């Protein structure tokens, strides 16, 4: 396991996130001073970095829960690799390289030119990113929708939070490929709501998102199966690592694109979202160490419902603008309700146990009385 969670406080898990926050905010303030040369400009950039960090945390808390769900079954070696290499890929790959790569492809320029464009012409850089929003939303929305539906369309799933929905989905899982059929139907519906080239772009991007999910599942299964054949202890290795990295990328799409509504400076975005990513890492470790997913039985359900909501929102964003604040609050609300439901369930179970113990004591006392 990652570590022993006994006796460790929540704040101890957030130590590195706090350190990264301090460094990031100081760096943001310095960047604000360098770009504007005024105290007000410095304060503005400082504030934007803080807001972006909060936005990333609110959008990615469900990501931490899903990460923990997968991470708890990985070997200690791959857990460590995900929490070291994975965070480097998450912070630098998705928050810096990914936006640059979009501009490189969309504008058909080299990586160095893309960096210069981000530094010298942030407005043009932001315009290219916004123009690429439709294919990104279609790709990321499809991938996340498959992640969420695969969790619920599982005939072995026996714990249900919203029973009347989840029981039907679990029973329907015996029909092979039902989640794929559902996603394809939704792709057709949304493509009909778009016009001309946008409709074609949406369909192709969504299909690529679906194929990416299936490819990751197949490759992950083959890699982990081959590792398992070599050693039973190698369960949950490279395949699970690849799955989590692609999943993190899909979660990041919404935050990266939404960040351009606050600032057009790529480096400020990288600082703000990078701070948020560190909190997601810390929360993931805490969830695994403390066994929170086992203790609160509906927490995973809330996270996967939030993923489904996010995927639908990303689809809807191809038609209308939906503020990222609404997306983040929606996901946080669902997770909060699932946590509250879990606490209520635990209280009921404890009450039943106490009630059962009392009845058992009464029966023993009555039996002893009869014998006397």
UniProtKB/TrEMBL annotation:
Transmembrane segments annotated in the record for this chain: 12-33, 39-61, 82-107, 132-153, 173-190, 202-223, 235-253, 259-281, 302-320, 326-343
One Pfam entry name: DUF475
InterPro entries associated with the record: DUF475
UniProt keyword list: Membrane, Transmembrane, Transmembrane helix
Highest taxon, organism lineage: Bacteria
PANTHER family hit by this protein: MEMBRANE BOUND PREDICTED REDOX MODULATOR (PTHR30238), SLL1022 PROTEIN (PTHR30238:SF4)
Protein name per Swiss-Prot or TrEMBL: YkoY family integral membrane protein
Organism of provenance: Shinella granuli
